[in-house]
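Data's thin. Show one?
=====
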Amino acid sequence: MSTRVFEQSESATIADPLPPISSFQLADLPRLTSDYLHSVGVVVDRVTGNLEPVQQGSFSVTVTNGPLRLTDWALHLTSTEPAVATIVATGSPLLVFREGGGASSPLVPRSTDVADVYVFFQGDATGDEPDSVLEANEVQSFRFTYKAIGRGEGLFTARVHGTVDVESLFPRGPGTEASAEVTVLRDRS
């Protein structure tokens, strides 16, 4: 029996980078935010192959952010065929596995096999990466563990969830400048 790493990759990016928008209505912001999140590059690759049931392998996820800062971001990982392979919630001080997409969702116990999990990043408290902020144009790469369950084929998917930082949408800056001349004719002394 041999184990190998497949180098083929699947990209979860489903849209081209956003085109420039000259004007929009405030009511368009939820759709534009969703469009932006779908434009963030996500690649799942380097999946260990040729495993037998109960053996563990791994896969990589690389996230490439665009021009806007994301806050409170998380990765949603899914195994499309949990009868074939499940994701192992390994956890660490910087990676927290949760059952749902909210930061207060129940934790997934360490070493639990799951088909669907959200990974939150906790580097804020220590100043380490990864943290809950994905800066503009930042690239983060991760390696996750999975467990072979049974014969067959499936996919691992990864999707970014997060909030577009308001400051990156509407940065504070100087507005239009205006001026007027003033003339003082004489001194009152």
